[in-house]
Amino acid sequence: MKTYIVGSLIAMALLISGCHAGNKNGSSADAKDAHEHLHDHEHDHSHSHDHDHNHDHDRSSGDTDEIHFSRQQAEMVGLEVEQVAPAPFSYVIKTNGHIQAAQGDEVIIAATSNGIVSYTNPSLTDGSAVKSGQSIVTISARDLLEGDPSTKAKIEFETAEKEFHRAELLVKDQIISTKEFEQSRLRYETAKTAYNAQASNMTAHGVRVTSPINGYIKNRMVGQGEYVSVGQPIATVSQNKRLQLRAELSESHYKTLKNITSANFKPAYDDQVYQLSDLNGRLLSFGRSADGQSFFIPVTFEFDNVGDFLPGAFTEVYLLASPKNDVISVPTSSLTEEQGLYFVYLQFEEEHYKKQEVTPGQSDGTRVQIVSGLKPGDKVVTKGVYQVKLAAVSSVMPEGHTHNH
After folding, report:
1. What is the DSSP pairing of strand 314-327 with strand 260-267?
2. What is the 3-state secondary structure (H, E, C) of 244-299?
């Protein structure tokens, strides 16, 4: 009986211990399952958040290259766009040269007597317009020791004329010989010629010197109050109807000479590039030998002076030779440079643009060959480039903007 009671107690103790352990293990499993479920939920939520964040980042990155420039902004800056299309483009040799007056368009006004120069119009300077027959200077020797030559010419003519008329009467009466009469007539004719040469230009202040053509004073060679001798240059008058462009070509391009057809040029005093094709220009000649001192070959063109050109001015010259077909080029105004790289701005919708890197080639002063980076049909900004560039740097895309590519 005692043994039975002890065994029962042991069995009950084991049962109670097993139940307690079972309850404890069940609670741990439930907690573990709940923890894992919460972790999975947080992971899914985090993954969803990261996915949304990455999606927003990708969308933002897609808009980074897009530049918004409204129609109103474009109108304000006068924005212009050119559609890329292959066209002929000439091989270019960039060099230097100068503008000079064409032959036959200039005359040198020379002194017709000795004396002191006095300009008729004290404000007459280089570049002043003059007309044919207009008085440029007056030359007077009235206060000089040698006397006024115009006054002397008049006295000599009047004296010679009286002697000649007297000789005509004496030779008839055979008082003087025929030889003496001829000598008298010769003196008269010489004095008359000298006097007539100055008579029309004689004034109370001296001998007038006039311009034989309409034109402009290119340069004054003597100043007010200077002494001049007969035949000494006083001023140069240029008609400026035709001008010449003289370019200096390096010997290294000698074999290209025969292919040169025209040129563009940019004077040192002007930012504009002029095309001879727009100025009725033509190639006149090129040198057959190089200058032993400069090692350059002269290439000369002639063109109409329809602009405000300054003869003698230094200029950059773009010699054009051997045109090639199907070349992509853009106006020089389209190109921008940043740290050695070159870019243009493309319009892909009315108010949307993007920056495009390109590789430029040769330039003829007005257009630049594009070796890579553009294709036919691209719309390149040619005017208002700077404003679009500023918009790319400082502008922010409008909030809520959507754009489907």
Report:
1. antiparallel
2. EEEEEEEHHHHHHHHHEEEEEEEECCCCCCEEHHHCCCEEEEECCCCCCCCCEEEE
Let me know: does 266 contact 315? Beta carbons within 8 Å.
Answer: yes
Q: What is the pLDDT of residue 377?
A: 95
Report d(CA 367, CA 85) in Å as an integer.
Answer: 13
Rg value, the chain, Cα: 48
Other beta carbons within 10 Å of 388: 24
Those residues with Cβ within 8 angstroms of residue 62's Cβ, 6 or more apart along the chain or in another chain: 405
Indicate the burial class of 274 (C-beta count within 10 angstroms; 0-12, 13-18, 19 or more): buried
- CA gap 166, 151 in Å, rounded: 23
The pLDDT assigned to 122 comes to 81
pLDDT digits (tens, 9 = 90+) for 183-221: 988 998 888 887 777 666 677 677 888 888 888 888 888
As a whole-number percent, the residues of the chain with pLDDT over 70 amount to: 76
Site of tokens 């030889």: 179
| φ and ψ at residue 35, rounded to 5 degrees | -65, -45
As a whole number, mean pLDDT of residues 294-316 equals 87
Whether the CB-CB separation of 317 and 95 falls below 8 Å is answered with yes
CA–CA distance, 332 with 395 (Å, rounded to integer): 25
Tens-place pLDDT, residues 68-97: 988 999 999 999 999 999 999 999 999 999
Q: How far apart are CA 181 and CA 171, in angstroms?
A: 7
**Cβ distance 328 to 86 under 8 Å?**
yes
**Of the candidates 135, 99, 97, the residue with the CA atom closest to the CA atom of residue 119:** 135
Specify the DSSP element, H or E, that contains 34.
helix 2-64
